[in-house]
């Protein structure tokens, strides 16, 4: 079957209907940053704060997704691009369902993040740069990955043997080496409130 033989089927319940039911808007909150910068920790802290306020959200975490949906992908440039493309498509489904899709992925390349931004409406993608100096990330090294990368045991490791492209114009920059997890999460929640996203 060729792609031209596939027809898009419009849903009976629209994104607007789902947002109305959930009493909230929906968007992708895309956390990007080096390994060890605190993306997953922050994403889950924001998720919890939204949950406490009765809002619907879900965290899509890089490691967790690679255990299932993206299990067969490696870490070549091509596989990383496909990893982010798939996550973008899944996150878009959450936006359509009237929820906040909170993603925590290194997503090292600006072009890949921009492609996800283009999948949704202009106000539905919030890029959050979880900024933390490389030496601090290496000091934290919660999974021991930097140590392995420095020994050459992990090829194409972001920040060591593969580049990380800092966001060009993120909606938010959160410096996790300067603020506590609670303070960082409050900065994100404050932004969402300021933009009347709930």
Task: Write up what this structure looks like.
The protein has helices at 15-22, 39-52, 62-66, 77-96, 110-119, 134-140, 145-150, 181-194, and strands at 28-32, 57-61, 100-104, 125-131, 172-175. The protein is built from eight helices and five strands; from the N terminus they run H-E-H-E-H-H-E-H-E-H-H-E-H. A five-stranded parallel β-sheet has the order 2-3-1-4-5, with helices on both faces. Helix content is 42%, strand content 13%. It has 198 residues and is an alpha/beta fold. The radius of gyration is 17 Å and the shape is globular.
Briefly summarize what is shown.
The protein is of the alpha/beta class and 198 residues long. The chain has helices at 15-22, 39-52, 62-66, 77-96, 110-119, 134-140, 145-150, 181-194; strands at residues 28-32, 57-61, 100-104, 125-131, 172-175. Strands 2-3-1-4-5 form a 5-stranded parallel sheet, sandwiched between helices.
The helix-and-strand class reads: alpha/beta
Average residue pLDDT:
91
Q: What is the molecular shape?
A: globular
Strand content: 5-15%
Radius of gyration, whole Å: 17 Å
User: How far do the termini sit from each other?
Assistant: 43 Å
Order of helices and strands: HEHEHHEHEHHEH
**Spatial order of the strands forming the largest sheet:** 2-3-1-4-5
Instruction: Name the helicity range.
Output: 40-55%
Annotation, overall tally of beta strands: 5
| Poorly predicted parts | none
Q: What is the count of DSSP helices, taking H or I runs of 4+ residues?
A: 8
């Amino acid at each position: 079957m060729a792609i031209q033989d596939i027809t898009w089927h419009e849903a009976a319940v629209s994104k607007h209907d789902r947002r109305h039911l959930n009493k909230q808007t929906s968007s992708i909150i895309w956390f990007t940053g080096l390994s060890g910068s605190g993306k997953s920790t922050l994403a889950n802290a924001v998720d919890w704060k939204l949950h406490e306020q009765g809002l619907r959200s879900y965290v899509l975490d890089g490691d967790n997704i690679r255990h299932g949906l993206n299990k067969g992908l490696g870490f070549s440039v091509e596989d990383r691009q496909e990893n982010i493309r798939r996550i973008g498509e899944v996150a878009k489904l959450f936006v359509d369902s009237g929820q906040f899709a909170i993603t925590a992925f290194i997503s090292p390349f600006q072009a890949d993040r921009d492609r996800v931004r283009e999948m949704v409406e202009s106000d539905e993608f919030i890029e959050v740069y979880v900024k933390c100096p490389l030496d601090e990330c290496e000091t934290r090294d919660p999974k021991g990955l930097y140590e392995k990368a420095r020994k050459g045991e992990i090829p194409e490791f972001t920040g060591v043997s593969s580049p990380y492209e800092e966001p060009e114009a993120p909606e938010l920059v959160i410096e996790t080496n300067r603020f506590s997890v609670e303070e960082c999460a409050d900065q994100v929640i404050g932004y969402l409130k300021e933009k009347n996203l709930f």
